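Subject: sequence -> structure tokens, single chain

Hey, anyone have a minute? Need the predicted structure for the following. Not urgent.
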Amino acid sequence: MNYLKHFFLVSFIGAAFGIQAQEKEETADLITDRPDATESPNTVPKGSIQLETGAFYESYKNEGIQDEILGYNTTLVRYGLLNNFELRVGWNFEEGRTSLDGTRISDVSSGFSPLLLGMKVEITEEKGLLPDIGLLGHLMLPFLAATDYRPETTGVDFRFSFAHTINEKSGIAYNLGAQWGDDSSEVAYVYTLVYGFSISEKIGIYAEVYGDFPEDSKANHYWDTGLTYALQKNIQLDATFGRSFTEGQDILVSAGLSLRLPN
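Reply:
Had a minute. Here:
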């Protein structure tokens, strides 16, 4: 489990760096798009830069073959261009290996994933039964990826994001959308649903189900659960554990840090 040791080391270093870099709080609440798969409908404040980074380990097993992926860096940078519009840039650095009954059968692949460029717009705020609604869209640019992770075509995704307040301590959010990628013209319809609960002003927990429905392949369904901890009003730590309902992912572990830089 050397991958897990590296994972926790990277997570700790990232958290320490974020604590030192942040010197003062801002008035707006910190609303992040991690650690769950559900994207928030809310944008970052105008003129603000928000960093959301972390590390993850996931494993897939099938008939004795195990594929392991370690993400050292899953950084997303969000910039509030307008009061209801943000720009988004993301880039992951990953390593992967494949083993058969514990014996490695392939070289370790490593490098940056395709660069993510995107935007988010807030469409409407919550009013009664009408939820918060947002729209996100991204391009995944292959020419900036490492050879091991470079597809032939540009990936595209979009999703609508919705959020409902249940009471002052809890709420639900869900996404509906579609994605194209991995050198396939096949569209995959995606969904997410998450329930969040605030244990205290600093600690929150969540439980989530999510998945996709490819046009010509079997559907994939997953679950995860985790917690967030607010070190300050604009610094948040998170941790997640999950796996798939359907055959495939047997473990997902992640941890991360989010912070909004002062204007």
